[in-house]
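Take a look at the protein record below and tell me what you see:
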Amino acid sequence: MQAPRIPKMFGIYTKKPSQFEYTPRYYDERKEKLEKRIAQIKKEVENEKNQTSTSEYSNSEYQSRIREDWGNGYARRNNTGMINKRVLIYLGILLALTYYLFY
């Protein structure tokens, strides 16, 4: 066994951990949808002030609104289905454990 060298013992030449910069990124889907909706409402108000007809709206605006509404409903239905599946799985595991313990 070798004796430790003096500089290492005092920490003069020890390696320091490598540094890095981490800037966390956060994406808020609700906020983005809200900002889009606010922009659409402002646009509608401006059009009403200018007394333009609703037929001047582009198809893409209608399509995006329909997609958002349908997407929200689909997410809700899909989420409730997952919850029901989890409950059934937990119930099955619980029944299997009680059967194993008592018989």
Remarks:
- The longest helix spans residues 59-102.
- The chain has a mean pLDDT of 77.
- The radius of gyration is 31 Å.
- Residues 34-102 form one domain.
